Amino acid sequence: MTDLSRSALILVDIQNDFLPGGALAVPDGDGILEAVNALARHPFRAVIATQDWHPPRHCSFRTQGGPWPVHCVAGTHGADFPQTLLPEPVTHIIRKGVLQGRDSYSGFLDNDRATSTGLDELLKGLDIEHVVICGLALDYCVTATALDAVKCGYRTDVVPQACRGIAPDPGDALKKLEKQGVLLKSLNTF
Predict the structure, then answer these.
(1) Residue 100 needs a FRET pair 20 to 30 A away by CA distance; which of 56, 61, 120, 190 works?
(2) Can you give the pLDDT at residue 1?
(3) What's the confidence (pLDDT) of residue 190?
(4) φ, ψ for residue 40 (rounded to 5)?
(5) Distance (Å, rounded) from C-alpha 10 to C-alpha 172?
(6) pLDDT average, residue stretch 15-23
(7) Torsion angle of alpha carbons 55, 173, 166, 145, nearest 10°?
(8) Longest dimension (CA), the chain
(9) Residues 119-129: what's their mean pLDDT?
(10) What pTM value is reported for the model?
(11) How far apart are CA 9 and CA 98, in angstroms?
(12) Would you kindly state where each structural domain of the chain is located, as residue ranges?
């Protein structure tokens, strides 16, 4: 078994609005929940869930000129984690996309590439060296989070079977991750 005492599991945006029936559903998004829950049972030092947490007139919404439908509005059912995601292993929640005029795909930085979500500071405070990342959507927020993790100096793994993307073929996103030094790991590695 892998020593996970200086490792954190990052669950990216596993929220009702990104699951089937949600406002911005990722195809087969709920298909990751069993794998995610299995990963979260391992003895990571921390299990951190990122959460889109938008104000009602967020810049990313089509109604405000953005590319996406209204989704993950702070305090709504759509922004909540699904009941099928085990809450017990989650030790910390990082909310992102909280400012009306700025979006945040990455769990580390807003899209302005200057405003921190606090995730890097949290990981450093916990003496984390290695992160394992899974969640939704692979080709947007998971990729952005993994690439920022590498830039911040963390050994970074992504578990493809615990991710789903908007694109039907994950190949391009996975190649981009590997090219930047992210390791793709299988669920049974941990």
Answers:
(1) 120
(2) 60
(3) 86
(4) -65, -15
(5) 21
(6) 98
(7) -20
(8) 49
(9) 98
(10) 0.97
(11) 22
(12) 7-189
Tokens of 16: 């009702």
- Mean pLDDT of the chain, nearest integer: 97
Encode pLDDT of 101-110 as tens digits: 999 999 999 9
With H, G, I as helix, E, B as strand and everything else as coil, classify residue 9. Answer: strand
The token pair that represents 176 in the structure block: 């981009």
In 126-170, which residue ranges form alpha helices assigned H by DSSP? 143-151
Q: Which of 162, 103, 154 is nearest to 137 (CA)?
A: 162
Identity of the amino acid at 165: G
The stretch 64-85 carries a mean pLDDT of 97
**Residue 175: Cβ within 10 Å count:** 11
Q: Per residue, what are the HEC states of 51-95?
A: EECECCCCCCEHHHCCCECCCCECCCHHHCCCCCCCCCCCCEEEE
pLDDT surpasses 90 at 2? no
Of residues 49, 19, 13, 17, the one with CA closest to residue 31: 19
- DSSP assignment string, 100-125: TT----SSSB-TTSS-B-SHHHHHHH
CATH 3.40.50.850 fits 7-189, yes or no: yes
Positions marked catalytic: 13, 96, 141
Residue 135, strand partner residues:
12, 163
The structure tokens 């990722």 sit at: 26
pLDDT of the residue at 127:
98
CA–CA separation, 152 vs 145, rounded Å?
A: 10
